[in-house]
């Protein structure tokens, strides 16, 4: 057993850092053109849906601040017979039309009748079709990329299609995803609640810097928790695909393998979150949701980032698993030494 421990120590590789994981994932993508084609073809339904989803999502993001301001203006008008604008209460008659800054405060020109139906449609798309299509794309990407990594060779496009579709694996992975969907939805609802209340506090008490600091701290903490848990949740999907462990069992294994690697998982997810923001924010400012080719470019970039993310999650899982196995062998050797010395 001691010789086995020495052999493990000799063969032990350095722990992969975030940049190492990203570099290895990029290498898999660049060296395997067939894999890119396979990922693109199997993601086509997802890409078409993402175009509609992103258009609707960006429109909701733009409309939400206006809706909140609209509600606050109406509330102040009914409560005080006027509303606060730059710390001055302006009185209005009951039948008077409110006209202020044409960009934000012209209530009569702003129509919100489509906001709620669009929001309901967006939530339904996220929970049902988008979730299922993202899961299928992720499972196929993880499986084929793991084959490419383990075999260290090329697979033909035909082999990828023939060997990747496994009904039992898809079913088990879907069960795991339902656990994750419920937990991630809870975090997203908490984030939406925090953002809404932060915005209302800012609109009401914007002159006080303490409220801005509290809101920023709350959102930052919530984001860090979400990203750290995202690494665990994504690893559980990889575990379902590669090891056939599903549901709560996959989550338990993922928590075990993630112990001691929380920061690494957090930073890895932070990279992809930052890339998503960098691609989405310019698109919102340029008004890509209004039409044109901008939204197609954004979705295409999202496809590349999403593929890279799942390949990186597969590599991250493999590295965490390898470290745990090495640690177990070394611990077993140490226990054996203690028993021998005790006897």
Can you walk through the features of this model?
Keywords: Membrane, Transmembrane, Transmembrane helix. The chain crosses the membrane at residues 35-57, 123-144, 174-193, 200-219, 231-253, 265-289, 295-317. The protein has helices at 2-11, 18-31, 33-42, 44-80, 115-127, 129-151, 157-164, 167-205, 209-242, 248-258, 262-285, 294-342; strands at residues 82-85, 88-91. With 343 residues, it is mainly α. It has one domain (2-8, 16-49, 113-337). A two-stranded antiparallel sheet has the order 1-2. α1 (2-11) packs antiparallel against α12 (294-342), α5 packs parallel to α6 (129-151) and α8 packs antiparallel against α9. Residues 80-111 have low confidence and may be disordered.
What is shown here, in short?
The protein has 343 residues and is mainly α.
Features:
single chain; 343 residues; mainly alpha; two-stranded antiparallel sheet; transmembrane helix
């Amino acid at each position: 057993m001691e010789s086995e421990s020495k052999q493990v120590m000799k063969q032990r590789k350095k722990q992969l850092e975030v940049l190492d994981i990203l570099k290895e994932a990029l290498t898999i993508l660049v060296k395997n053109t067939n894999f890119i084609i396979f990922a693109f073809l199997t993601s086509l339904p997802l890409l078409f849906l993402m175009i509609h989803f992103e258009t609707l999502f960006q429109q909701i993001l733009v409309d939400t601040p206006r809706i909140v301001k609209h509600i606050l203006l109406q509330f102040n008008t009914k409560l005080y017979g006027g509303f606060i604008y730059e710390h001055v209460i302006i009185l209005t008659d009951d039948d008077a039309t409110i006209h202020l800054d044409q960009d934000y405060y012209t209530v009569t020109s702003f129509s919100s009748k489509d906001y709620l139906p669009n929001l309901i449609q967006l939530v339904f798309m996220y929970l049902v079709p988008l979730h299922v299509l993202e899961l299928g794309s992720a499972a196929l990407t993880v499986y084929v990329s793991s084959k490419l990594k383990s075999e260290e060779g090329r697979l033909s496009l035909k082999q990828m299609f023939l060997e990747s579709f496994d009904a039992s694996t898809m079913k088990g992975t879907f069960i795991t995803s339902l656990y994750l969907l419920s937990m991630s939805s809870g975090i997203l609802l908490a984030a939406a609640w925090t953002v809404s209340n932060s915005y209302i506090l800012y609109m009401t008490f914007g002159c006080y810097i303490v409220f801005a600091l509290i809101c920023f701290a709350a959102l930052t903490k919530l984001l860090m928790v979400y990203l750290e848990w995202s690494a665990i949740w994504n690893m559980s999907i990889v575990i379902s695909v590669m090891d056939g462990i599903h549901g709560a069992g996959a989550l338990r294994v993922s928590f075990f393998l993630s112990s001691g690697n929380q920061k690494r998982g957090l930073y890895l997810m932070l990279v992809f979150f930052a890339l998503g923001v960098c691609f989405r924010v310019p698109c919102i400012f340029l008004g890509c949701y209004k039409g044109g080719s901008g939204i197609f470019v954004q979705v295409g970039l999202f496809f590349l980032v999403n593929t890279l993310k799942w390949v990186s999650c597969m590599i991250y899982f493999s590295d965490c698993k390898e470290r745990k196995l090495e640690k177990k062998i070394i611990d077993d050797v140490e226990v054996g030494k203690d028993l021998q010395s005790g006897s």
